[in-house]
Structure formats: structure tokens, C-alpha cells
Amino acid sequence: MDEEIPRVELTLAAADLLRRLREAHGPLMFHQSGGCCDGSAPMCYPEGEFRTGGSDVLLAELEVEGVEEPVRFWMSRSQYAVWSHTRLIVDVVEGRGSGFSLEAPEGVRFLIRSRLVAP
Fold this sequence. Notes:
Helix content is 18%, strand content 36%. It is an alpha/beta fold.
């Protein structure tokens, strides 16, 4: 039996940054809205700081080695309708992103890379 392809995965650089952010800020979460503030970049918040609701989809509970609890990855339902055919890969690049995301003071930002998945 084939294992289901994960909807969201992390690069090694993203996992490393999440470990550092977890140490500094406690449990974490992602939300990707596709709205303003860096467009479709995923925003990292302390868990529960961004309120999710019926207009959001929980895509993954990411297991990060060295982080006790999963990092939940949420996306707005309207954004998910556009990205539903892809696997999202959370990566890190140099440069400052939105001031709302926890990594902003680090001089790096989270970025989504994607791969098409079979329907």
C-alpha cells in the first residue's frame, strides 16, 4: 500500500529555523492567506496567535525533530482552492519578509515552493 504524499513538507533549513523560533517563542503555527503582507508567503506565529476558523483549512501537523509538539500549517480555504493540486514545500531564503511573521528579525523569510501532485 502506498503512503499518502504529504501536503506540506519542510526543507532542512526551514526545520532548523523552526527549532530556533520554538526555543524563543514557544509552540508555533503557520498560516498562509494569499492576501497582503508578502502575498502567498507562509506566516509563522506563536500557536494560537492567529485565529483560524471555518474559512481556513488545516493542511498538516508538521513533525520537526527537536520540537515537542507539531507545527500546524493552516491555509485560507480560498487559497487552498488554488493550491489544492500541489505539494507545498516550506523553505527559507535570505531577505526580510513581512513584519508579522516571527522570522522577520532573523534576516530571512519563509517561502513556499511547490510541486504538482497527481489528482
